Amino acid sequence: MQKKIAVLAGDGIGPEVTKQALKVLRAIERAFDHEFTYEEGLVGAAAIDETGNPFPKETEKLCLKADAILFGAIGHPKYDNDPNAKVRPEQGLLAMRKKLGLYSNVRPIKSYPAISEISPLKANIIEGVDFVVFRELTSGIYFGEPRGRNESGDVAFDTCIYSKEEIRRISKLAFEAAMKRKKKVTLVDKANVLATSRLWRETVREYSQDFPEVKLDYMYIDNAAMKLIQNPSVFDVVLTENMFGDILTDAASVITGSLGMLPSASMGEKVALFEPIHGSYPEVAGQLRANPIGAILSAAMMLNYAFDMVEESNAIKAAVQQVLDDGEVTEDINHDNPLSTKEVGDKIATLVYASNSVNA
Ligand code: IPM
Ligand code: MN
């Protein structure tokens, strides 16, 4: 099969982890006789340096004509330390989500027995954890208007706003996913306080009538944060709004033991985007110390979700499982005897090819 992939490596460790994901995709091409083409685009601080815009028009065009987007990371410390910076790399990420209509962010959270000792949670708590968060990504307090300051500048405000339609379209994806899993959706909100949360409850309850087999339950965000640490196995499909999903998924990432392990998919109206959930981690950028598995598993999600290549996607997951079992991993998982970013990428690519090349 032929597919066109837009590659936006971005900032910090983005380029080095993305490079490993591309290496693994090339192994998939050879083993399964596919032909992927890769076209690179600028995004984030790198794009500001060259064009003044963190999500240039060129990049937007490139994304829109691709079959899928592989994204690295965005963010640079020179902007974090400058509260007056007019453009920030993160604006590129938000603009990209909005312009590409990527309203649903899918973040799977899984515990891996082979690395359970690096989780700060006890092994019996994380055993068997396997859930997926559907986070709304293009509305809510991240985008609501009005936002800003009053005239004197000493009062600031943001607006959280949701429409039924925005809630319905992500509910559809969450309920469809639930049908393929344990048929359970947990809506996380703050309906005891917020009007938007009450609209979420009402809309999702209505929507759930179309899925009588799916059990819908509700949980306040504060309680969900507690459950995530105390008993994360209660979750299967979690559905939530933008900001709650942002916070909850960072907290959930701790279960696996390393943020570097986790992939994500963002989908919606047009082309879908796949990225590790970690940030640009500038402290180690360029040193080949970062874990490439989040980026590599994002490529696996791309194969599955965007190209319907289930076997190929599973081949990558199996190779990842293998390097975890063998302890052939980066320093975030194996302190004493770590491999480099590149070595982990090489191992996974070799395993993918070796165990599937009969298909070619
Ligand atoms: C994420 C990030 C972004 C967000 C930031 C960088 C704007 O934290 O993708 O979760 O808050 O959505
Ligand atoms: Mn976040």
Q: Name the hetero compounds present.
A: 3-isopropylmalic acid, manganese (II) ion
**Got a strand count?**
12
Helix content: 40-55%
Please list the strands of the largest sheet in the order they lie side by side: 2-1-3-12-11-4-5-10-8-9
Major sheet details:
10 strands, mixed
> SSE order, as H and E?
EHEHHEHHEHEEEHEHEHEHEEHHH
Shape: globular
Protein model, in words:
The chain is α/β, with parallel strands linked by helices and 360 residues long. The chain has 13 helices and twelve strands. The strands form two sheets. The chain has a ten-stranded mixed β-sheet with strand order 2-1-3-12-11-4-5-10-8-9, with helices on both faces. Helix 1 (14-32) packs parallel to helix 13 (341-356), helix 7 crosses helix 8 and helix 11 (293-305) packs antiparallel against helix 12. 47% of the residues are buried. The mean pLDDT is 96. 3-isopropylmalic acid binds next to helix 5.
Keywords for this structure?
360 residues, alpha/beta, Isopropylmalate Dehydrogenase, 10-stranded mixed beta sheet, two-stranded antiparallel sheet, 13 helices, binds 3-isopropylmalic acid, binds manganese (II) ion
Write a brief structural summary.
Helix content is 43%, strand content 18%.
Helix-strand blueprint:
Blueprint: E1 2-10, H1 14-32, E2 35-40, H2 45-51, H3 57-64, E3 68-73, H4 77-80, H5 89-99, E4 104-110, H6 123-126, E5 130-136, E6 148-149, E7 156-157, H7 164-180, E8 184-189, H8 195-208, E9 215-220, H9 221-230, E10 237-240, H10 242-256, E11 263-267, E12 273-276, H11 293-305, H12 310-326, H13 341-356
Helix pairs in contact: 1-11, 1-13, 7-8, 9-10, 11-12, 12-13
